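Summary for the steering committee. The consortium agreed at its last meeting that each partner would contribute one worked example illustrating the joint modelling workflow. Our contribution is presented below. We chose a case with several input lines so that the handling of multiple components could be demonstrated. No manual editing was applied between input and output; the record is shown as generated.
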Amino acid sequence: MINEFYKARLSGKSVIRELSEYATARGQEIGYENVFDYSLGNPSVPCPQNYTEAVIRLHQQENPMALHGYSPSLGNTAVRETVAKHLERRFGLPYRTEHIFMTSGAAGAIAHAVRLVTKPGDKVLGFAPFFPEYRPYINDSGAQLSIVPADFSNFQINMEAFEKELTPDTQAVLINSPNNPSGVVYSEETIREMANLLYKKQEEFGHDIFLISDEPYREIIFDGKTAPYPAAYYDNTITCYSFSKSMSLPGERIGYLAVCPRATDAEILAVICGQISRGIGHNCPSSTPQLAMAACIDETSDISVYEKNRNILYKEMTAMGFSIVKPGGTFYILPKALEADSVAFCQKAKKYDLILVPADGFGCPGYFRMAYCIDTEKVERSIPVLRKFVESEYGQR
Amino acid sequence: MINEFYKARLSGKSVIRELSEYATARGQEIGYENVFDYSLGNPSVPCPQNYTEAVIRLHQQENPMALHGYSPSLGNTAVRETVAKHLERRFGLPYRTEHIFMTSGAAGAIAHAVRLVTKPGDKVLGFAPFFPEYRPYINDSGAQLSIVPADFSNFQINMEAFEKELTPDTQAVLINSPNNPSGVVYSEETIREMANLLYKKQEEFGHDIFLISDEPYREIIFDGKTAPYPAAYYDNTITCYSFSKSMSLPGERIGYLAVCPRATDAEILAVICGQISRGIGHNCPSSTPQLAMAACIDETSDISVYEKNRNILYKEMTAMGFSIVKPGGTFYILPKALEADSVAFCQKAKKYDLILVPADGFGCPGYFRMAYCIDTEKVERSIPVLRKFVESEYGQR
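What follows is the complete predicted structure of the assembly.
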């Protein structure tokens, strides 16, 4: 019989998808260039040219049986080695092939990580604001996601609330920095303080607490900075990475899970992931994206456009009276709405063809998310429209 | 803490993988051309040239943002439509886009199908001989796989045993024809008899019983025949397909799940699969293999080599005294070993550099599998070696 648990979900609507579909439909009426669609996190710059060239070269030159044959279940061995060396080069940790498990994007990495370090019934702590898909990612594995409320002053970790929620049944902690939806990058101080608390609690509880670090936006950092790398501060870290954002390849589903070389049982965790795969139908990401990505692993798309867009939106919207924590990376910004009900706020914005996403589902009611992975020209054109919206609906500010 | 359930699996060894690794190691000693490696089901003929050309064309001509952007979670809509039309053309059933869900190969399709039509604790019936990975595919979802013993006379369905096992708690039945490991194709009579029994039991039990039909070998059929298509005989059929074998693309992980248009709630089942994906980290197969496959969906690799190999092995091994049910398709054959202990039999064969897989794990102790997706020249060279093995170890026959 049909599984009623999954069937029941059909009645739940995804706010982001609905808004995105509305934007597309509205675009067909008035021209998509006239819809200021800030709904979706789909990269707006092309992938590295070397990725494209690698795919073409592989298909022109390689033996098709070797190119398209079964990949080992942990991923192509040479690709895993390339990823390990890349991480060692970048972060100074002794990553080896054995620590890397290739996945279908960060979603695939998280699906394995949660099953790796929890069993059904275990508690996983996450932090607001958070990507809403974390709920099914974690809860469908049988573990239970519990959310630590946001520190609205800066969207760093609310340490007091974290310590209170960090109970002995907590087996894993899930972070996402640079963050979707706030764009905020956890400071070194935040990461250190979190790591210290986790070390303290591991000792107190007498069991490992794993940190699942979801880092698809790691390379999209502004102001010439780099984001502190959590695994360098906390040994029991499972890093979940995706090339969807940094290389603009979300459709190709390519990412990895990296076990910190200093984690408990570090040498067998990726191998266990291969066992988890057997039951969830994963069986390795596609060969071609693995190989083509590895051919240009140190590159990213030209992500400077996102910083340009952030600068415009932060400056102009702050001037309009919005309260905003300045994003340090990603292509998201999370301003406070101009009324308590952010759903009503975003509904009103639609009248001006401004597509904004209420952040209630992200654990931040009263806020809204803008995904500014769109052309800068369109961001610029949206400013007077935003201003008109604010003035007409909420008066002179 | 590390999940002990998955960790415990590391001590279990895959017989096939061990033998394949042995073959590779032995090949390094004496030259791989001298190892008669019948262990692995990795296709030995290249993918269609049109697949390769489609990948190159897409990367040369398409806008990278469109090509590599997020695909809808059910799969690229145009690709789903192409698959639906292909199935309608082939089998005369009114498939539409809404019935198709794109997956990462058949493994991905089965992972969704079992979660779609069972809940944890439900019974799923399968039939010996069977692909050993069905155990984790089914059991890790929470359902329980129960195996109906083989009919050793012909490797069709053992109907008497099937009816006995078909209890009211059975929510799904899993078949695989053409079959791995026997190479046998279920006859129209078998499919009809099975369908009639399922219809009868659905009425008796008062609930749907879904048929999960795993068909990666559907196109690899010998003697100019075609395999009867189960969904044409039984309405509640979920077809799981992969292009791994027919197009020689196992590394690209491309397949689909097709809901029979006459199934209960046919119009929502693929949509529910999109909900299942959220929890198992699937989120759509890679875009490029979807699009390139769709560009040549009616083609297959040149699979005539498999029939040639079947002919040689069946004729020569029967003459050597092996008892064999003649394969009607795939690239597998399942002879009876020449002693009761097929593990010992295959162990002895290794001395002759013949890599044969004992079929105990496939639910057929006393039998062994040969995967003859290798060059015909090598099959021919293996015959005198097989003969020598048989004569030396088991005497003149």
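The longest strand of chain B covers residues 170-175. Residues 110 and 240 of chain B are 6 Å apart (CA to CA).
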